[in-house]
Amino acid sequence: MKQLFLPLLLVLSACVTPPEALDRASRSQRDALTFAITRLGPLVKLSEARRLADLAYDYPVQIARRQAGTDPPLRVTRNIRLGYKTPGFCYTWADALYARLRQEGFRTIGVAVAMSPVRLNRPIERSGVAVTLPGRPVSSGLILDACSEDGALVWSKAEKGLFTSWQPRDSVLWEKRFGRKPWYALNPGSALIQRAREF
């Protein structure tokens, strides 16, 4: 299977933007993200949405400049898939952005780390920050992905697509460690019901 995706991974890793070449996001880009965040629900404060959008565009550029001289995230991911161990995974970018957004203490916006696991049609594992209403699932919000374009923010709805299936990071890590949960364990209540039926 590694041989099948090797050409794709090599092509993706060649598309690298040096940190000094990253442009500052335009006001229209920031306004588009602000508008998308406010569309999550009527209780989202415009001031918080604007602050989050500004941070989401500015902070990944800082991360890219700090990591200048190291391999870009997609190349690192390719190296891991081929068996080489190197620092700078996409999840470190997501963790850094998540930690910075958490420092802001948003009251009307929730943030969480999300992952899109490896599948046959998605050979690269991706990590990002999910922006939702507080307490809502990842699938109801937006994904901020600072890794794919090496510091230039890419954001989208957290819908399941052809190349992504965004999920909470804990569930993806569970699957990587133990395999997919059986149907009766997807909801803790149904697991108890199934367990009761066994006795």
Q: In angstroms, what separates the terminal alpha carbons?
A: 42 Å
Structural class by secondary-structure content: alpha+beta
Describe the strand arrangement of the main beta sheet, using strand numbers: 4-3-2-1-5
For the residues shown, what is the average pLDDT?
75
**How does the overall form come out from the CA principal axes?**
globular
Gyration radius from CA atoms, angstroms = 18 Å
Residue share in helices? 40-55%
Largest sheet: 5 strands, antiparallel
Q: Would you list the SSEs in sequence order as H and E?
A: HHHHHEEEEEHH
Number of strands: 5
The poorly predicted ranges are 4-21, 190-199
Tally of individual helices? 7
Strand content: 5-15%
Integer count of domains: 1
What does this protein look like?
The chain has one domain (2-169). The protein has seven helices and five strands; from the N terminus they run αααααβββββαα. It has a five-stranded antiparallel β-sheet with strand order 4-3-2-1-5. A hairpin with an 8-residue loop joins strand 3 (142-145) and strand 4. It is globular. Helix 1 (2-14) packs antiparallel against helix 4. It has 199 residues and is of the alpha+beta class.
